[in-house]
Amino acid sequence: MSAPHPRPVQHTTTCQFTQPGEACQRCGVRIFSVCGALEPGQLAALDRLARHIEVSGKSMLFEQGDKTTSVYSITSGVVRLFKLLSDGRRQIIGFALPGDFLGLSLSASYAFGAEAVDDIQLCQFSRDDMTGFVKEHPEVLERMHQLIAHELIIAQDQMVILGRLAAEERVAAFLLNLHQRYRRIGRESVTIPLPMLRIDIADYLGLTIETVSRTISKLARNKVILVVPDGVRVLDMKKLQALSA
Amino acid sequence: MSAPHPRPVQHTTTCQFTQPGEACQRCGVRIFSVCGALEPGQLAALDRLARHIEVSGKSMLFEQGDKTTSVYSITSGVVRLFKLLSDGRRQIIGFALPGDFLGLSLSASYAFGAEAVDDIQLCQFSRDDMTGFVKEHPEVLERMHQLIAHELIIAQDQMVILGRLAAEERVAAFLLNLHQRYRRIGRESVTIPLPMLRIDIADYLGLTIETVSRTISKLARNKVILVVPDGVRVLDMKKLQALSA
DNA sequence: CGCGGCCTTGAGAAATGTCAACTTACGTGG
DNA sequence: CCACGTAAGTTGACATTTCTCAAGGCCGCG
User: Is B14 on the interface with A (CB under 8 A)?
Assistant: First the structure.
C-alpha cells in the first residue's frame, strides 16, 4: 500500500553552479530563465530571495488549485505538469526541463499539478518575494512576458499534435522536440534521455501506454531509433523529422 | 474558381460604441480587453492610436509567419485562429470573440493565422504604436501579462480536451465553453450562436466534420440540445455539463 | 531468489475516420 | 418568381486506427 501522492522530499542545498558570493554567475541554465535578463547586481538581489532545494523523484511540487505559495526555476532534472479529470484521466501538459520556470503567470493559484519525474534541483522563490521583485524591476516582467508568450506558442503547437497528428507522428514529434530542448540547454546528444515513464509520454501525447510502446518499437524496427536504457538513440534524424509531419 | 485565400475586405468605420470625443467609454467589450485597465485619459490616448475597421467574413486578417504589423482588439464578430500543416491539415487553436485581443505576445511575427468567421469589427493598432504605448504605460503590460496567462490556461484546458476526451465530451465541452464566453460578454442566451462552420468545429476539436455532425445529431436526438439555424439551443444544461466530463 | 514496477506484445473491441450519397439552404440569373 | 447551382450539413456503410484486456518478459532491489 503506497501513498497515492508521495509527500515531497525536499531539502535545502547549495546550488550546484554557484560558488559562495558569485550569485548565479555560472548557473548553466540562467540565460534561459527569468534570471537571464538580469545584470549582476539584480541577479545577486534575486539570488538572495532564492532557496536552493533538491526534490526527489515522484515528489509532488504542488497540486492543481493550490494557492501559489512558491515559484520555481528548475536547474536540474525533469518535472511533469499535468491536469487531472475527476474520473482519473490525466493530461500531461508539459515537461519542464532545466531552465524552465514554473509560475510565470504570477497567478494566485496553480493551474496544474507538478511532480518531479526524477531527482531535481530548483531555485524556489516565495510568490510574494517574486511579485515584489517584479514590481521593482519592470524589465523582469517584460522577460516573463516573453517567456509566457513562448509557452503559449508551445501549447498551441501541442494542440496541433494532439488534434491532428497520428500516433507515429506524435511520438516522432515528441522525440524531436525533446532532442531540440536538450540541445538548447547544452545537452546535445544523439541519445535522447527519457526519464519519464511510458505512461507519462502516453498522457502527454493523448495516447495509451501500449500505443506509445508499439510506436517506439516500430520506430526501432524501422531503424529510425535505437531503444537504450532510459532513452532512445536517434539513428536516422532525417527519417524522424519526416515522420513528425 | 475561387481564390483559396480571399483577400481582406477592410474599411475604416466609426466605432459602433463610441460617440465622437468620448473615446471608448461606452465600448461594450472594453473591460474584457487590454483597454480594460486604463483610466479615461489613457484610454483616450490609446484610442487616438486605433483604427476602427470592419472586415467581412472569410477575410484573412493575417497569416502564420507574417511579420506582426498590427495588433487587434475585436469588438464584434468571430475570428478563427489556426495553424496549418504542410499537407493541408489544419488545427484551429481558438475562436476569438468580442473582447479578445490578438497580439498579446507582442512578438515579431504571428504564430498562427487569423480569419474572420463572419463580418467583424475591430480596433487595429500598429505594433509599433502598441509597443510604444506599453513602454509608457507599464500597467498595460501587466494587464497583457494577465491576459496572456489566461490564454495559456485556456490552451492547456484545450490540451486536455484534445488529448483525453471522447468525441461527445469534446462537443459538449465546446458548446458549454462558448456559452460561458458569450455570457461573460453579456450575450447570455440559451441559444448558442455557431457562426463557424462544422469543419471549423471539427478542426478545433480534433475530429472530422462527420463526427461533429453525428455527435450534434446525437445530442439533439437525446434532447440535450435543439439544432436551430446558425446555432444550437440548450435544452438540458445539466446533462450537457455532465457529458462534458 | 523472488517480488513489484515497468514495459512489450498479441488478439479482439470500440471509436473514429473515410468515402459516398443525399438533403437543405441560399443566392443568382434566366 | 422560379430553377438551378453551389456550399454546407447529414447520414449510412465500411475501413482504419487506436484502445482494451490479457499475458508474459525484463530488471532492479530487498
Answer: no
Nucleotide minimizing C1' to CA distance for residue A169: D17
Predicted confidence (pLDDT) at residue A59 exceeds the cutoff of 90: yes
Indicate the pairing of strand A231-234 with strand A225-228: antiparallel
**Rounded CA gap, B190 and A149, in Å?**
35
Say if residue A88's pLDDT is above 70: yes
Residue in A89, A141, A156 nearest the CB of B111: A156
Residues of chain B with pLDDT under 50: 1-7
Encoded amino acid at A106, one letter: L
pLDDT of residue A37: 81
Alpha-carbon distance A10 to A123, whole Å?
Answer: 12
pLDDT of residue B13: 72
Q: What is the mean pLDDT of residues A160-180?
A: 98
Predicted confidence at residue A4, as pLDDT, reads 42
Pair type for strands A51-55 and A120-126: antiparallel
Measured between alpha carbons, how far is A218 from A211 in angstroms, rounded to an integer? Answer: 10
Cα B150-B154-B160 angle, rounded to 5 deg = 145
- Return the closest nucleotide (C1') to the Cα of B166: C15
The answer to whether B91 contacts chain A (CB < 8 Å) is yes
Confidence of residue A6 (pLDDT cuts 50, 70, 90): very low
Beta partners for residue A227, in sequence order: A232
Q: Would the pLDDT of A57 be above 60?
A: yes
Q: Does B245 touch chain A (CB under 8 A)?
A: yes
**Neighboring chain A residues of B153 at a CB cutoff of 8 Å:** 105, 111
Q: What is the pTM of this model?
A: 0.94
Separation in Å: C24 C1' and B230 CA: 13
Which residues in window 158-197 of B are less than 7 A from strand C by Cβ? 166-168
Q: Are strands B231-234 and B225-228 parallel, antiparallel or unpaired?
A: antiparallel
Confidence at residue A1, expressed as pLDDT on a 0 to 100 scale:
34
Instruction: Say how far apart CA A203 and CA B160 lie, in whole Å.
Output: 10
Measured between beta carbons, which residues in chain B are less than 8 angstroms from residue A153?
105, 111
A5 has a pLDDT exceeding 70: no
DSSP annotation string for chain A: ---SSPPP-EEE---SSPPTTSTTTT-TTGGGSGGGG--HHHHHHHHHH-EEEEE-TT-EEE-TT-B--EEEEEEES-EEEEEE-TTS-EEEEEEE-TT-EE-TT--SB-SSEEEESS-EEEEEEEHHHHHHHHHH-HHHHHHHHHHHHHHHHHHHHHHHHHHH--HHHHHHHHHHHHHHHHHHTT---SEEE--S-HHHHHHHHTS-HHHHHHHHHHHHHTTSEEEETTEEEES-HHHHHHHT-
